[in-house]
Known about the structure:
The chain is mostly helical. 80% of the residues lie in helices and 0% in strands. The protein contains 7 helices and no strands.
Amino acid sequence: MKKFISIFLVLFVSYITYSQTNEDEILKDNDFKILTEKSIKFYTSEEYINFEKIRKELLEETGRSFYPHGLLTPTEYKMWMEKNLTKTKFTSLEEAMLAYEKHYDTGKEIDGWYGKLEDKYGSESFFPVYRKHILSKFKPVLKANGIFGDPPPAAFFEKNANSNAE
């Protein structure tokens, strides 16, 4: 029994040491530093917050998700914006479309850095470090602005259930 406990303790201490070493290695990685800077700057910007509030309205009105990778196309976004521009803080359609493009391009760039690091370290090692050192920095800002963690509206589930049944 003492042998079993000794083996367990050695394995446990090794695991903790490995986890800390891996976290330290990730934190020292220049790509992680770039991801941290770009993510926090992007996700806490007034532009992003404004854009996400519009996305939330789009989600409620269209009954589906809108992410830069695509369920709402640029054409659909433009059509919605033409009808609802006055409901937003944008002063022109051009400004709204530039925000869409910037959101899309920056989001895609951040996704690229995230994917590169996740591939390098593995999601089990990388995501906890990302959550602790990046997500925790911008999540409170998004929550304070009513963005982070809101479930999709009921219409989203109804519409998807109907489309899946067809």
